[in-house]
Amino acid sequence: MFEPFDDSRRQAHSGTGEDRSGACGEQMSRPHRVFSGTLDQLAEVRRFVRLVADGHEAVYLAELVACELAANAVLHTRSGRPGGWFAVEAGFGPDEVRVAVSDLGSGREPEARPADIEAVSGRGLWMVELMSLEWGSEPTEAGRRVWASLPVSGTR
C-alpha cells in the first residue's frame, strides 16, 4: 500500500536546480503510518512525526510541513472522500529531514504558487517550497506522493 521513496520517478522542485537524488542516503530510516482521510487526523500526524523525530532539532519544521501536505491530501484529493486515506512517511538524518504524504490522487499536479492577497487559502505548497531544500511529487500505484527535503537547522 505504501511505497518507500523512489527518486527515479520524482518530479522535483528546488531553487538550486541541483540533483539531490539519494541525498538522504542510508543514514535515514523512514517509518510510515496510514491515516483516515479526515482533517481531524492532523493532530495524529503531528504526534506521529514527533514520535519518529525522537527529539531531533527539526521536529517542528517537519510537523508543520507534514501537516500541510496531509491537509492538502484530505482537501484536494480522493483521500478526503468517504473511506479515503493518506499515509505519512518521515525520516530524520543528521543533515536532512524528509517527509512525504501519499494520497489517492486527484488527476492534477501539485503546484506551489503565491495566493492572491485577498485569498483565505492556497498558500500551503508555496510555504512548503519556501521552507524546503527541495520538494516534489511522483505518481504512485494508488495516487500521488508529495515529499519535501528539509534543512536540519529549520531555516533554508
Automatic annotation (TrEMBL):
It comes from the Bacteria. The keyword DNA repair does not apply. Residues 1-21 have a biased composition (Basic and acidic residues). Gene3D superfamilies: Histidine kinase-like ATPase, C-terminal domain (3.30.565.10). Keywords: Kinase, Serine/threonine-protein kinase, Transferase. The keyword Kinase applies. Residues 1-30 are annotated as: Disordered. SUPFAM superfamilies: ATPase domain of HSP90 chaperone/DNA topoisomerase II/histidine kinase. It holds the Pfam family HATPase_c_2. InterPro entries: Anti-sigma-factor_SerPK, HATPase_C_sf, HATPase_dom. Residues 35-147 form the Histidine kinase/HSP90-like ATPase domain. This is Histidine kinase/HSP90-like ATPase domain-containing protein. It comes from Actinocorallia aurantiaca.
